[in-house]
Amino acid sequence: MDRGGISIIDQQKDAIISAVKKITQGERPERQKPRQIETEIETEIETETWGAQERKRKIENALANPRITPLRILDNTVKEADLLNNNIANIERIEEKRDMNPGMDAIYILSPQPHIVQCLVADFERRRYRRAFLLWTAILPKELSDMLRGAKSQIAGYKTLLVDFYPRESHLVTFQDPYSFPVLYHPSCNDLVAKHLQTLAQRIVGICIALGEMPKVRYYRPKNPTHEAAVLCTHLARFVQKELDAYQSFDPNFSAPTSRPQPVLVITDRSMDLVAPLVHEFTYQAIAHDLLPVEDGERVTYCVTFNEGTDKAEEKVMELAETDSLWIENRHRHMIHTIEKLGGDFKKFLESNAHFTKDSSQTTMNTIKAMMADMPEYTAMKELYSLHVTMAQEALRVFGEDKIPDLAPVEQTLATGLDDDLKKPKNVLDQVVRLLDQDGIKPLNRLRLIALYILYRDGLIPEDINRLLAHSSLPQSEADKILNLDLLGAQTTHGLKDARPAPPPLFPRTTINIPQEEEYITSRFEPAVKSMLEDLCRGSLDPDSFPYTNPPPDVAEESLASQASLRSAAPRWASANRRQVENRQRIVVFIAGGATYSETRACYEVSEKLNRDIFLATSHMLSPELFLRQVGDLSVDRRRLGLPMDQPKPRPPAHIFDPPTPPAPMSPPFGVGPGGSRSPPVGVQPPSNSLAAMTLNGPAGQYPAPPQPVNGGPDRSGAGIPPDSGKPNKLSKEKKLRGLFGKKK
């Protein structure tokens, strides 16, 4: 499913590394000095063994520490060696105590946060380094830029990178900000919305800039809306267009002409599809995040026990990342096919390594796990297969225990409006009530079912909602998790005698070419984003529901261009296929308020089917439980939400303002001992203070003019700044590789 081509992970990495290279390779050899990188301190979330409170901890961890810092950006996409091999002597955090190094240049990778700028100013006041090259992860607001006016002579270079986002997959970007949801939809957060939309706009534009694109902008505009947040996409699209125009003015030569069709950015929000976060999705990635204790924090991880049941049993936290080929290959497969594929691949592995085979006639999940214990020479492959076999096995166990096979057909009927025979369903309420009566259906799944039924019915009278909750043995307090859906545009309640026609669906469903296999019958629902993308690629996306910020002069011509690019999806020979990958139209979809893994899968599928490069961006990834938790919180007192905006602002550590430590007494010249006598020769000593400062982090602003270097200083963009052909010695290298990022890469 995941094809080759451009990766947003690589694009962000290249933006950071190339900026550093322009600095380190631009120095004159006679002025070579090793440099240092600094990053911000973060509070780590302690992991715990999963027990009775596992789901609660999973949600709490998802809501913890949402701020994107430069350290997290680097940790996610850049290897330490990528920086250290570019004449960087050391990497340190700007908020930690550091040595004075007035003879050394420093590269700072910074976020435009007030307390970070205060740390930077403190360095300038103490002349901690010889010169400073400033790389900002986002736009520095004018009021913070003004704080640097007194340090012009020390600023040798200045550049805004616009990398204030967090690539999760090659075509998936998150902002790691679950608090975006209450800011956008909570009635008491109206005063925060404008500033938050500005921040979102700049991050979205950062993604476009990283991809090298200046897209047309379209946005979701619901018809006949009833909720205040209906204007959210309209305002966000205007903010984005303004930022794109500002960047185009800042860099008129940015977007060079290409043979690709013009890119498109589509801005939507969670209200466009309220069903996707509720219905069970049966592809591997989605079901893992729904049913298993997958930790979805700075990294996506799962704890697996190797050699279980033996004296060599060992627990290990494994990452589900782009480097895991089995994960990439299977994450969008239906679970049935995932299990078949894992079994088939493992059988082929055994056939090519026959000395491991005991009895490979039946490769069940249990036999695969047993065979894994006998393969110590193939540790990496063994661990990957063990991880995914364990996850698949555990998912199937929970799948059965939670009675999801019983829930699935009814959920699909409610989500699609069609029964198993693809006809208008009958006796839907009876089916729902029967499931609510059934033992083994978990409270969360009962609540999801009730929410789906209310959305299917376009609202119920309040008394009926209370009856369904009581029938499900759910407390009345859970009602907020359903009723608050009206803040996202749903009709959850109506009067007893209210007569109104059901609103037409945004994307009418078709029964044409729907496979009749059992796994597809229970997976008939497709997220609205898939229909939207298919219509967009075919040139038939409704311009009333998805208008342009700057309408094209001829919409008909625009449609013809889309249809022409569809024809390029026809098969080609190998050389033509390479051109195809390079010439695919790029589409960025931003979903405000969080996205689901079913929507991620849909974007990859349309990319494959219609020959596009589609990137999904969002504030955070949603599990069904997190979505319902956040919807319920929309009626909670704002003071209880713990919004970062309502917390005390971070302050620089006190030691930043301490007077500099007096320099150590001068050592005698090399080779001269006390009293002027020559000392015996010794090995070359490494520099004791070989550090270089680089700092990371970033929010929003307006492409301000940076402080100009004085005396004809080097170009502030970072180009033309002092080559460094010198390589650090071995001891210095060891010092650098102590692992700032928490683990070696």
From TrEMBL:
Protein's GO biological process: vesicle-mediated transport
Pfam families linked: Sec1
UniProt-annotated stretches for the region Disordered: 641-745
Bias type Low complexity, positions: 677-688
Pro residues bias spans: 659-668
Superkingdom per UniProt: Eukaryota
Biased composition (Basic residues): 733-745
Classification via PANTHER family: VESICLE PROTEIN SORTING-ASSOCIATED (PTHR11679)
Family according to the record: Belongs to the STXBP/unc-18/SEC1 family.
Name of protein: Sec1 family protein
